[in-house]
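Hey L., structure's done. Input below.
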Amino acid sequence: MFSEPSTISLLCECVHLPSKYTIEQVREVYNKVCNTSGYENFIRTSTGARIEKQGAGGGGFSRLTFAGDRLQFAEDHMGTTAEQFGKKVRTVLGEALPELGISAILVQQVTVRAVCAPNAFTSAAEFLASSIFRVPQDDLREFERPASLHGFRLAFPATREQPEAFNVRVESYLRDPRSLYIENVGTFKAPIPSGNLEKIERQIGATSDFIAAKIIPFLAQYDRRGVE
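Output:
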């Protein structure tokens, strides 16, 4: 069995109609959410502004960027779970949208990045080469140099029954050769009015759950030696 996936990064991009909100309005949003959502710094940018908090030792960050036609949330190496992230996004949007005069989110894109490790193999590269791809070492000799089979992608287009699209990337994790890096990008195109932000929270959860409930069981089928 694979190890439980550990979330390392979460992103949520909420696209809205272009809005000419002022820097004073953005600063007012910052004043409302800096205590409840943990942001500490306010920074003006060429396209608007961002508010953020650096992780301990500078190893991660929590960030919200205002870009004129979208709000971009990011939690990177902050120990934040998808459930916590979903609640944070819903809470901040509940304060920000009325203040900025935004009535609806038109498109939402959620990215969840996680790592996990196989048990039957000493490294993710060995798992991918020997069990997923099953390419004989002799076939790689054509390259006349060492070769590593690095990863693959899976695409799940939207359907009538499942209107969200998922794009999954699986590859060996550069920071830890034993672990696999899994990224799922969920795209949700149904507009969400400002009074129904619980839907955005649920969509963040659905993108994360797809890794745990679908991708990990798929990979676990190959986590054994001598897969036929």
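The chain has a mean pLDDT of 92. The first helix runs from residue 23 to 33.

-- N.
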